[in-house]
Design a protein that fits this description.
The structure holds two protein chains of two kinds. Chain A contains twelve helices and one strand. By secondary structure, chain A is an all-alpha fold. The longest helix of chain A is centred in the first third of the chain and has 33 residues, at 16-48. The two termini of chain A are 38 Å apart. Chain B is mainly alpha-helical. Chain B folds into two domains: 2-70, no CATH class; 108-302, Cytochrome Bc1 Complex, Chain C, CATH 1.20.810. Chain B contains 14 helices and one strand; from the N terminus they run αααααβααααααααα. Chain B has helices at 2-20, 22-27, 33-60, 66-71, 80-88, 107-110, 113-132, 142-151, 156-183, 192-214, 219-233, 256-261, 268-299, 321-326; one strand at residues 99-101. The chains are: A mainly alpha, B mainly alpha. Chains A and B meet through α2, β1, α4, α5 and α7 of A and α5, β1, α6, α7 and α8 of B. β1 of chain A pairs antiparallel with β1 (99-101) of chain B.
Chain lengths: 309, 327
C-alpha cells in the first residue's frame, strides 16, 4: 500500500473538486430520496382513500386552511439567496486561501506528460477511449449525450412526477438517468482520476505508479473468433452483428415497454419509441462493449476499411 | 431639498430680467446701486437663516429629498404593496415574481443550484476581468504573466485561485442543477424548451472551463488541451483521421481541428483562439442563453414546484384550465 501515491492523487489541486463531488452527490441523492419516499407514501395513502384525495393539499409539508399559499419574494426568497451568496463567497475565499491553483512547468511539446489527462470533467470521455476509437468516444458520444439530454422532455411521455420528487411514479426514467449520470459519467470520471496511471494503465488506489510497467494483452476482433478473414466478410459480419443488436435490442425494449410501462407506451408515438429505443440501446452498448473487452479481450466488433467499431 | 429648488426657481425668474432686459433697467434706473446692495444685505439676515432651517429640517428625513425619491421609486415602510414593489421596480430583482409558492423557498426542493451557478458566473466574470488586466495571450508572455500574478501582483494569487475554484464549482453546480431538475420532473410540459436551453448552457459551461484550461500555458493545460483537441482529428467526415475524412480530402491543415487551433499543433494561435473564445465569444453566447433561460422560467409558470402530487388515475386528465374545472 503506497499511501504517498494515494495522497498525491487525492491532494492534486485539480482533483479536489472530484473528491468534493462524491460527498455532495451522496448528500443530494439522500435528500432527493428522502423527499421522494415521503411523497410516495402520501401518494399511496391518497390512492387508497379517494375521499382524502379530494380534500388533501397533496404535499408532505403541513398546511392549514387560512394559510397563504404564496409568500412575498421580498424578504422570504431574497434572504435565502443572499445567504447562499454569502456562504458561496466564504467557501470560495477559504478554498482560495488554503489551496493554490495548479501551475506546472511551462508548456513543452517535446516533453509529454504521462499520464496526459484531459480536464477532470472530460475524463469520462477519455476513459471511453480505452474501449472505443476516438471518433466514437470523442465526437459521436458527446454529440449523442447532448442530443440525448435534449430529447428527454420529448420522449418522456409520463405526465406524472412533474414538480415533486417521486420514485414510484417514474421508476424507469429515474433509473435510466441515474445509470447515465452516476454510472456512466461520474464513475468513469472517478476511474479516470484515481485509477488511471502512466500509459493510462489500471492502478488500484494505493498502488505505486510504475512508469515502466508493460501489460501484454492480446486483443482479438470478433470476426477472428469466427474465423472470418476477408475484409468484405468482416464488414458484412460486423454490420450484421451491430444491426442485429439494434434490431433484437429494439424488440426487447418494445416488449418490455409494452408489458411494464403500458400507459407510457400507449402515449408514445412511433418516432418517440424509435428514438427511445436507439438512445437506450446506444447507452447500454457502452458497458456491453466494455465487458466484452475486459472479459474476452475483444477489441472490434465491426471492421471496415474506413472505420472500426 | 424639493422646496429649496422651488424657491431657487422663483429667484432666478426675479433676477434675470433685472440684469438682462432694457425695459426693467429703465424703470429702476432711479434707484442707486448702493441701495440695491443694502437691500440685498438686509435680506441675507432674514432669508439665509430661513433657508438654513429649511435645509436642516430636510436632512432630518432624507427619504423626502429629491435625490432620494429620484433613485427609489416607492416607499419602504413594511406594507404588502411595498414588498411587491421592492422586487418589481428593481431591475436586478425583477427576474423574480412578487410572490412565490410558499414551499418553493425550501432549500430541500431546489437545492439553490441554479442561483448558485449564476452567482458563480458573476464571480467568474468579476475575477476574470481583473485577471485580464495582467495577462497577455501570447506564447512569450502568458506563462510569465501567471508567475507575475502569483508572486508580484497584490492579491494576484488569491485572484487566480478564486477564478479556478469558482470555475470547478460552477461545473459541479450545473450538474447538480440538472440532476435536481431531472429528479423533480421539471423538464416536463411546459418546460421542455427551457430544459434544452439548460443543456446548451451546460455545454457552454464545460467549454468555458475547457478554453480557460490552456491559458496559463503550462504543461497541465497544454497536454489537457492537446488530448482534448486530438479527438477532433477523428471527427467523422471533417477530421483527417476520422471515418471518411481522408476520402473527403481532409489533411491536418484543413480539417476541423485546424479550425479550432488555428494551426496543426497547440501553439500561439491556439492560445489566442482559446483566449478570445474564453473571454469574449462564449461568455456572450452564454449570457444571451442565460437571459432566455431566466425569462422562460418566469414565462413557463415560474419555479416548477413543489407541486401537489398527482395520482395515477389523474395522469391523463388536464390539471388546470376550463377542462379541469368542468369535471
Amino acid at each position: 500500500m503506497d499511501w504517498r501515491q494515494l495522497w498525491e492523487i487525492c491532494s492534486a489541486p485539480d482533483n479536489v473538486p472530484i473528491v468534493a463531488l462524491i460527498p455532495l452527490l451522496i448528500f443530494y441523492i439522500y435528500l432527493a430520496w428522502k423527499q421522494a419516499h415521503a411523497n410516495d407514501q402520501l401518494i399511496a395513502q391518497l390512492e387508497t382513500d379517494p375521499a382524502m384525495a379530494k380534500t388533501h393539499h397533496r404535499k408532505t409539508w403541513p398546511f392549514k386552511q387560512g394559510w397563504q399559499k404564496e409568500v412575498h419574494v421580498w424578504p422570504f426568497l431574497l434572504r435565502v439567496e443572499f445567504l447562499a451568496a454569502i456562504i458561496i463567497t466564504i467557501v470560495l475565499m477559504v478554498w482560495s486561501i488554503t489551496l493554490n491553483a495548479p501551475l506546472e512547468e511551462p508548456a513543452n511539446p517535446n516533453l509529454t506528460m504521462n499520464p496526459a489527462k484531459a480536464p477532470w470533467y472530460f475524463l469520462g470521455l477519455q476513459e471511453m477511449l480505452v474501449y472505443f476509437d476516438p471518433w466514437i468516444a470523442g465526437v459521436v458520444m458527446p454529440t449523442l449525450i447532448i442530443i440525448g439530454l435534449m430529447v428527454i422532455p420529448y420522449i418522456d411521455t409520463n405526465p406524472l412526477g412533474s414538480g415533486y420528487y417521486t420514485w414510484k411514479q417514474r421508476k424507469f426514467s429515474i433509473s435510466a438517468f441515474l445509470f447515465g449520470f452516476i454510472i456512466m459519467w461520474v464513475s468513469m470520471i472517478l476511474i479516470g482520476t484515481f485509477i488511471r496511471g502512466p500509459g493510462w494503465q489500471w492502478f488500484w488506489p494505493g498502488q505505486t505508479w510504475d512508469h515502466n510497467r508493460l501489460i501484454y494483452e492480446v486483443n482479438r476482433d470478433l470476426p477472428d473468433i469466427f474465423g472470418i478473414t476477408s475484409n468484405l466478410g468482416k464488414g458484412i459480419f460486423g454490420a450484421i452483428v451491430v444491426g442485429g443488436y439494434y434490431l433484437l435490442g429494439g424488440f426487447v425494449v418494445f416488449s418490455l415497454f409494452r408489458r411494464y410501462m403500458a400507459k407510457d407506451f400507449k402515449r408514445m408515438s412511433l418516432l418517440q419509441l424509435g428514438i427511445t429505443q436507439f438512445l437506450l440501446l446506444t447507452m447500454v452498448a457502452l458497458p456491453i462493449k466494455m465487458s466484452i473487452r475486459l472479459l474476452w479481450h475483444i477489441k472490434y466488433v465491426w471492421i471496415t476499411p474506413w472505420f472500426n467499431i | 431639498m424639493a422646496d429649496e429648488s422651488k424657491s431657487g426657481g422663483s429667484n432666478v425668474s426675479g433676477t434675470t430680467p433685472a440684469s438682462g432686459s432694457n425695459g426693467r433697467n429703465g424703470k429702476n434706473g432711479k434707484v442707486g446701486l448702493v441701495e440695491i446692495v443694502k437691500d440685498d444685505l438686509d435680506s441675507i439676515k432674514t432669508e439665509i437663516p430661513a433657508k438654513v432651517k429649511e435645509q436642516i429640517d430636510g436632512l432630518k428625513d432624507p427619504t423626502k429629498t429629491q435625490v432620494y425619491t429620484s433613485i427609489f421609486r416607492h416607499k419602504h415602510d413594511d406594507t404588502p404593496r411595498n414588498r411587491a414593489l421592492g422586487v418589481l421596480s428593481n431591475v436586478f430583482l425583477h427576474l423574480h415574481p412578487a410572490k412565490i409558492n410558499r414551499d418553493a423557498v425550501r432549500y430541500s426542493y431546489t437545492w439553490g443550484m441554479g442561483g448558485i451557478t449564476f452567482f458563480l458566473f458573476i464571480i467568474l466574470t468579476y475575477t476574470g476581468v481583473l485577471l485580464m488586466f495582467y495577462y497577455h495571450p501570447s506564447k512569450v508572455q502568458a506563462f510569465r504573466d501567471v508567475l507575475y500574478l502569483e508572486h508580484d501582483v497584490p492579491f494576484g494569487k488569491i485572484l487566480r485561485n478564486m477564478h479556478r475554484w469558482a470555475a470547478h464549482l460552477m461545473v459541479i453546480a450545473v450538474w447538480l442543477h440538472m440532476f435536481r431538475v431531472f429528479l423533480t420532473g421539471s423538464y416536463k410540459k411546459p418546460r421542455e424548451f427551457n430544459w434544452n436551453i439548460g443543456v446548451l448552457l451546460l455545454v457552454f459551461t464545460l467549454l468555458l472551463s475547457f478554453t480557460g484550461y490552456l491559458l496559463p500555458d503550462d504543461q497541465l493545460g497544454f497536454w489537457a488541451v492537446t488530448v482534448g483537441t486530438n479527438m477532433a482529428r477523428a471527427t467523422p467526415l471533417l477530421g483527417h483521421e476520422g471515418p471518411f475524412g481522408p476520402q473527403l480530402g481532409m489533411t491536418p491543415y484543413n480539417d476541423v481541428r485546424f479550425g479550432l487551433l488555428g494551426g496543426s499543433i497547440v501553439d500561439a494561435n491556439a492560445l489566442l483562439r482559446s483566449y478570445i473564445w474564453h473571454c469574449i465569444g462564449i461568455p456572450i453566447v452564454a449570457s444571451v442563453l442565460m437571459i432566455v433561460h431566466f425569462w422562460r422560467v418566469r414565462k413557463d409558470g415560474g419555479i416548477s414546484g413543489p407541486a401537489p402530487v398527482m395520482l395515477e388515475e389523474e395522469a391523463d386528465k388536464p390539471r388546470r384550465g376550463p377542462k379541469a374545472a368542468g369535471e
